[in-house]
Structure formats: C-alpha cells, structure tokens
Amino acid sequence: MKVVVGLSGGVDSAVAAYLLKRSGFQVIAVFMQNWNDTTGTLHGNCSWEDDLDIAKMVAKKLDIPFEFVDLSQEYRKRVVDYMFTEYEKGRTPNPDVMCNREIKFDAFVKVAEQLGADKVATGHYCRTVSFINEGKTIFRLLQGVDANKDQSYFLCQLSQEQLEKSLFPVGGLQKSEVRRIASEQNLPNADRKDSQGICFVGKVDLPVFLQQKLAAKKGDVVEIMSDFYDRCPQYADDDLQNLAKPVKYSPNDGKKIGTHSGAHFFTVGQRKGINIGGHVEPLFVIATDIETNTLYVGEGRQHNGLFRRALFINRDEIHWVRRDLALAEGETLDCNVRIRYRQPLQKALISMTSDGMYITFKEPQRSITAGQFAAWYLDDELAGSGVISV
After folding, report:
1. Taking residues 86-109, what's their average pLDDT?
2. Same domain, 268 and 357
3. How many other C-beta atoms lie within 10 A of the C-beta of residue 372?
4. How far apart, in whole angstroms, are the C-alpha atoms of residue 262 and residue 216?
5. Taking a C-beta distance cutoff of 8 angstroms, is the pair 178, 13 a contact?
6. Range of the domain at 175
C-alpha cells in the first residue's frame, strides 16, 4: 500500500514515516507550504524554510521519496479568511480545527491521490478503528494513548470519508516513546521542540496579525462587579434557552476603567492585553460587544461572569463524526464534552431540539466562547462536534 506522510519537520511526523516504512508500506514524504507571510508572527520561531530543510533531512535519512507542495492559496482562502471573518463577527475561531478539516485531510488528500497514494498519514496523537455495521464500514476516532498529547479535539470536524483515508501511526504511543524511537533511529529532529501557535503560522501577536484586515478602533473597557449577578434571575435546569444565553451587559451595568484598541481582538476568558492596573487580582474579559465596541471585564479568575452552565449549537453547525449516532429531535445523550484543546472532559447532557443542540454541563464551565468548537465523547471516542453559537 502506498501512503503519503505529511512531513512537517517535527518529530511526530518523522516517527510516523519511520513506523510506516518499518511496517512495509510504500512511503512518500510530502511537505506542505501553507503560509509564508510574517505579519504579526513573533520572532524566535522556526520559519517554514527551516521546517522544509529538516523534513528533507528526515526523508533522506529514511530513504523515502520527498515532494514539496504549495497549498498557501488554499490555506489563506479556507483557514485564514475564515479567521478574519469570525473575529470580525466577535466570535473566536479555531484555525487548527479548520486546517485539519480543509487542508490536511482535504486539499492534502487530493495531492496524495494525484501521487497514487491509498492513504495519508500524519503525526497526530489519536487513533482510528473500524467495524462493520449492516455491511458498511464505520470508523471510530479515538483519543491518543498519551492523555497529555491527545489531539483528537483538533480532528473533531473530520468525516467518515476523511477517516477512511487516514492513518495515525503515533496515536498508540506515549510522547516519550516517540522521542526514544527518533533518538534510536538518529533522526535529525529527535530533540527538536514541538511547534506552537496557529497551525502552519506559528505564534503570533494576534492584534497585529488581525490588523491585516481588521482595523484598530478605540473603545471603552467596562468593569462588571461580582455583586451584579446577585440581581440576575436564576434558571431551572430544564430552561435550556436561558441557561445557554450569555449575560447581555450594558455600560450602565458597570464602570468605565480604561480603553482598548478593538473589541474584536479579544475573547472571553482572555487576560493578556487588557493592560489596566490597580486591581488586587488580574482582570479577565467576560464579554465583548462588537456593535458598541465595548469590552467587559471582571476581576479574578473565579469571577461569576466567566462561568456558564450551558451552550447552544445551531442545527447547521452540528457535525457527527459517527453519523449513525446522530440524535433525532427530542432525544438526549449523556456524554463527556470539551470546549477547548487539553481541557479535561466534562460530564454533560446533550439535548436535541428543532433549532439545534443544547449542551448542559454538570458543573459550570469557564469561558464558553462563541465560534469555538464543542466536541463530545463516548468513553474515549470522539462522536461529534459543533460550533458554539452562544
């Protein structure tokens, strides 16, 4: 079987390529160039040229063919433009999830097919298994064995068709084992640090990066005191619509304590960039109002405005990895949910309505943010995901 490995320059994809070759696959290494604009990127990170050089060295060491493909136009159109559009709406996107859905397991798969490959492989820490149901093969997306490195969340938008084409050779290993294999095989990136930041872009100064298309605009920072919530109504557990609604603030609910350069540059739960002193505990963003360009903040990590019991996902933004498990209107499902990468799984109840899906958590959740992805799990299987609407 011929397999194309997305060789990124990192140790995980390098070991994935080695394991596949050792198992007898015909392996082709392909390096994707997806971004070369340095606007807003922070110095000290490896450029894509460095990644390319190391990927070439790995392919040479493993004695496998090496190809280069430029997907930067697709990446800008399908990932970066999506980022700008979401931030402009006052939502917080997840470009890594979209990069996997649109680039690594779509545009890249098409490149692999042109090379005659049967499958694509990456260095993601997750696993797939399959079973037959009524004559049809169904693929399950499982968490990686290494709980600290599990990346299933980033693949939460993949389809059955994409999983059928995919291999994850390191998903059953601990990170320490991957490092050990790389060292034993004298791979040139055995000790290289893992990449951080936006997929293919790296670590960025987000306001500077976003100002490529979104203009800075001065607005007010309004602090909401904790006693504000003593006046807020309390809702029953079955009042899903109200439980899922974020509090709508007005400037009269608090006091102006400073200014900012654009509400669309901030997200709920953010601490960095507020730059206002005079408080015992740090300030955190609890809400943004794009229409009035107002930033609402609260003091302390446990501020009431940071927590909510429920969220809502519009019907057209619900995605079932396991389509055979999709809920019908009126059905519910007990499961575990995470709303950001590396968040411990949280016990929750999914309720399907005519408008969409409500997720009610056993415990209030910090920083539920519109535009982010909620992913739900059954044991260690990621069954589906959706974009948080409110």
Report:
1. 95
2. no
3. 21
4. 5
5. no
6. 2-206
- Whether the pLDDT of residue 37 is over 80: the answer is no
Q: Which of 154, 179, 169 is nearest to 104 (CA)?
A: 154
Residue 82 sits in a domain whose CATH number is 3.40.50.620
- The whole-angstrom separation of Cα 301 and Cα 204 is 24
If one counts the domains in the chain, the total is 3
- Give the helix/strand (H/E) hosting 64: none
Residues in Cβ contact with 98 at an 8 Å cutoff, skipping those fewer than 6 apart: 78, 79, 82, 157
Report phi then psi at 103, rounded to 5. -110, -65
- Residues serving a catalytic function are 99, 199
The model scores a pTM over 0.90? yes
Which of 56-60, 79-83, 314-318, 371-375 has the lowest average pLDDT? Answer: 79-83
* CB neighbour burial string for 216-241, b if at least 16 within 10 angstroms, e if fewer: eeebbbbbbeeebeeeeeeeeeeebe
Task: Please give the DSSP secondary-structure letter assigned to residue 198.
Answer: B
The neighbouring-strand residues paired with 255 are: 223
